[in-house]
Write a structure and sequence with these properties.
about 375 residues; Rossmann fold; seven-stranded mixed β-sheet; 11 helices; binds 5-S-methyl-1-O-phosphono-5-thio-D-ribulose
Length: about 375
Amino acid sequence: MKIHNTHYRTIWPAGEGVRVIDQTQLPFTFATADLRSLNDAVEAIRVMIVRGAPLIGATAAYGVALALRADASDASLAAAAKALKAARPTAVNLAWAVDRVSATVAPLAPAHRAAAAWTEAGDIADADVEQCRAIGQHGLAIIRALASKKGRDSGPLNILTHCNAGWLACVDWGTALAPVYMAHDAGIPIHVWVDETRPRNQGASLTAYELGAHGVPHTVIADNTGGLLMQRSEVDMAIVGSDRTVANGDVCNKIGTYLKALAAHDTGVPFYVALPSSTIDWNLASGGLIPIEERDARELTHISGQTEAGALETVRIAPEGSRALNPAFDVTPARLVTGLITERGVCAASRAGLKSLFPEIPAAAE
Ligand code: MRU
């Protein structure tokens, strides 16, 4: 995707390691950060310099490579895998990427491991770009059909999204936003309702930033507004991403996604989830088994932003002494999902639906 007329991925090899876009500084400052060690990669994931399921997977893959450059022993590989997997627990792409790189390099002599891990990490990043591009094409067909049913005279197709599942969350393109970009580029009139996505505001800060940079008409709304807009027939479809989709089609995504899916179900709004296959956890039978990350209560009790004078500041919004609970994700049951948009096509959110697209996967969690 382009920022200031330059094409960027969110992660790319640079110098002694990889360079990433520092998402903690957006939308105010476009800055990059260099990750040169395992610890840099772990910290970047933990403090959310990088975030979004596919991107933390790619970052973790490079993290293994960086660890092996320093020490290619079996012990170093095991310690790197453990540290990276502990950085954030919910998005399965992280463990998936670490396991994939580990499995590639473990049989090799230590002298060859770092280079092989580096190549594997690059392949994971490249594959993510292609998978998101394919998700975009499949989602575009859905948007095109809904827009043509609505008719141009009835105004733009109104699409609601939650959190940030755009190119910043992936290596490029995005999952939920890839079809949006392609529809906009194809001249289909669309408008996006952007859930602010408390407490970290990935919608207001990142999704709005991305859509604005691409020229896609959008409006930021409070998280609680979507239901009203759906009741008023001002939402034509919802598309969100996923951090972990399990074998029965249950979908884990940013906290608040479930409530949007409930409202969509109640009002008959199609609710789609876009995800690459690296986000599917075939080993879990249902969504209740997914580990839900609990983040620092300070993300709720305080809020950060830019003052009129341009300074970045964090201020308290809850009383001193009030406790806060901050689970970062929730699970949307498959029955509330209209369809899963994957790189292989669109399927029902069910075991049978997933199997129809991925017949080669052995059913570990029957
Ligand atoms: O906590 P975050 O910002 O990493 O959460 C990200 C999301 O919930 C995204 O919707 C999800 O990772 C899908 S990204 C393509």
